[in-house]
Amino acid sequence: MKHIKEFSKQADSYDANSNIQKRVSTYLLSKVTSSPKKILDLGCGTGDINRKIDWKYTKFIGVDSAYGMCEKHPKSLAISVLNSNFEDKIFQKDILNKAPFDLVISSSALQWADDIEKLIKFTSLLTQNIAFAIFTCNTFKDIYNISGLEIFLPDKKELLKITKKYFNITHETKRYRLEFNDNMSMFRYIKKSGISGGERRLTVAQTKKIIKNYPLTYLEFEVLFVYTK
Ligand SMILES: C[S@@+](CC[C@H](N)C(=O)[O-])C[C@H]1O[C@@H](n2cnc3c(N)ncnc32)[C@H](O)[C@@H]1O
Hints:
This protein is an alpha/beta fold and 229 residues long.
């Protein structure tokens, strides 16, 4: 869970450097066509989802393991932010007491789960309605190929198999491309966006190798959207 520290460290620059995640959250919210009143956001970050909700809700609970992110999240009588790991047993026991939720949403965060199946199974105890955007293993595929770094992001087919076990879902895959002027700024972006993670991030040697050998002017991201109607 070293990536938690990484996210907390990046909280200040996260908003400015998270253009793809912002596009992802906007698209994810466009898939929520009901107006859920009681919402849980897993990996809420600095509150992008919360700020973009344009309907009236009665309760919004955001959970994030990075304190720096939680600090920046909007708070009010209707908004609570829990600084917890969403896979933690104590958190899960506590949130189960607050169930059911009209919607459990999560944007650009579930790919970090140590055991995503266990987490999605647990989510099915909280709600029947989900909206998840999850980065898949096709994200930064070329970087993984060049560096020899082991891909840790989840496989799309596997994710679909798991979510279909617990929810009646619709899904869609989107690819995003982000252009850069040079490889150096590309890697600065990876670091600041929080996508590279802590534990699984590139070593200095791997980073140097990529900066030298990366043949493209862009980064590619693949995101799986799974949602109930
Ligand atoms: C890329 S950010 C996305 C934040 C927000 N959902 C958005 O769309 O802007 C991923 C967030 O997930 C959080 N996160 C990752 N693993 C987590 C875990 N196991 N429990 C709680 N939060 C986690 C990170 O701290 C980070 O704030």
